[in-house]
Amino acid sequence: MLADGDDVLCVDNFFTGTRDNIAHLIGRPHFELMRHDVTFPLYVEVDEIYNLACPASPVHYQFDPVQTTKTSVHGAINMLGLAKRVKAKILQASTSEVYGDPEVHPQTESYWGHVNPIGIRSCYDEGKRCAETLFFDYHRQHKLRIKVARIFNTYGPRMHPNDGRVVSNFIVQALKGEPITIFGAGTQTRAFCYVDDLIEALVRLMRTPDEFTGPVNVGNPGEFTILALAQKVVAMTGSNSGITYLPLPGDDPAQRKPDISLARSALGWVPHTDLEAGLLKTIAYFRDPGLRAA
Ligand code: UDP
Ligand code: UDP
Hints:
- The protein is built from eight helices and twelve strands.
- It is of the alpha/beta class.
- The protein starts with 7 loop residues before the first strand and ends in a 7-residue tail after the last helix.
- One uridine-5'-diphosphate binds next to helix 4 and strand 7.
């Protein structure tokens, strides 16, 4: 966005992020950083809002689950209130978790999901579902221009070593020669999208005509078992790590893979980075975090 000549106001409470990730942007004349938590009102003047706020890793969003729901729900209300006042276009980073443990495979946007309202993932899943509700009600009731993306598992450089999600966990474990921690039998599946592909989709979504609101799935349909991911990471890092099997956490979805037909037609978008290419770049980053300034 900076390269396109936009002014960028970056708002973060740094609960899971770090300033190191944007160190290379600080000091640029069109970049402004603000430490702020979206659960509190925010009065600024902007044309477009990307609301990405909320920890996305189960270990982090389960650390303070009440705050996680507040971040998605109060955060959405505040950002929608802001968008309403300044007539900004607003994009919501929703999630494949709105589909819960899906009974439809692959998942299409028309599927309403299979979500436990009272489990350990509910603070994230139901928070994000309620945020979608708020977006569509502000759209219907206040004529806001909204864009809702349902983001599937995403990974890449600048993830925190302690992020807790599977790709960074396995890479960090493999590089340290520690056991790879597989939860359950490793037969559950996920489809992994490289971060640059995801960003491209979000920017394209923001630029769609006002009539297009989504929700639209954004992810890479290449589906892998967690065991296959572990083997790939071990092979690619040349690690001698073994595998440790740990109990499967509650409500962990058995399979997940996006149907991206809508993203193809509405955004003219498909992901270009396959798992191997994305892992190469991510492994390089974790080997040498000095690459973060790139
Ligand atoms: N809000 C904000 N920034 C603004 C405008 C509103 O943070 O520029 C917050 C404000 O705290 C409010 C919420 O957004 O509680 C929802 O605003 P809205 O106008 O939809 O509702 P109301 O103010 O009528 O409750
Ligand atoms: N997982 C695992 N080992 C880990 C971290 C995660 O086996 O160290 C599994 C987890 O149980 C889930 C999948 O990998 O089945 C993806 O987990 P992640 O936390 O990355 O995201 P999720 O899609 O579950 O939100």
